[in-house]
Structure prediction request, 125 residues.
Amino acid sequence: MNCPNCNQPLPSDTSAFCPGCGAQIGARPVQPQVQVVQPPVQTVPSHLALGIISTLCCCLPLGIVSIVYAAQVSGLVASGNIAAAQEASRKAKLWGILSVVIGLISTVIAIIVQGGLAAFAANMD
Prediction:
């Protein structure tokens, strides 16, 4: 666009004054630039892998509870409910760890019982 007074090219369409002659170009509304600031994305660990491994290898009922809580985490983060997502993450981790501990304890007890039964059977001869 050119200045209507001196016909020099204007640097932009939103110029209020001509840089060559200083004439007022007109009352052009200046569009304010709006910056949309995204809130920082907070990551909350779901502990889904712990739930799956503990379900398959250790204690099925407690591992399933861990998986259920872990599955809730991503939906809660997406909805913006970070506090609830952190609580679900904490519960998923707790139930996963409980499943592993109870699975290990029950394995040790099973080994001891089998060893005792084998020793008893050997003494019966």
About this structure: The two ends are 110 Å apart (CA to CA). Residues 82-124 form the longest helix (43 residues). The mean pLDDT is 86. Residues 24 and 62 are 76 Å apart (CA to CA).
